[in-house]
Amino acid sequence: xxxxxxxxxxxxxELAFNASLTEKLEAKGYSVFLPQRDGIEPxxxxxxxxxxxxLCKLIFDFDRNEILKADIFLMILDGRTPDxxxxxxxxxxxxxxxxxxxxxxxxxxxxxxxxFARLFRLNAMLYGPLDVVVDNIDDLIIEIDRYAMxxxx
Length: 153
What we know:
Layout lengths: L1 E5 L5 H16 L3 E3 L1 H4 L13 H18 L2 E5 L7 H12 L9 E5 L14 H4 L4 E3 L2 H14 L3
Parallel strand pairs: 1-2, 1-3, 3-4, 4-5
């Protein structure tokens, strides 16, 4: 089972959280595409002659292809607002949910307590396409395991 990991990756805390959760998932036997680790790194020499527009297109195309290959789309929903790149990735995953003769699981992890006081924790345009939203890592792993057992080849 391949998991595409979508979420913010712009500060040390986000990078560390993403890496830690990926490590837990991989220890359970899942393959994880983590863009901060497995994606295109624009600072590498082979990309130095590309324009910003060209780099953005390369990153978009590469990540889009990984989303399409994935069995599970995992979106981190924490923050004052979910990461806009992850929101686009969710749209791609949702519109291609039935590729590969199997229904892709679209799951969100929302641990941010700032959202608990509001009437609606997330915008309907995020809740709508997600199959499941959980609020802790243990429940996330339970849901992923449940999907994997039901959809094992």
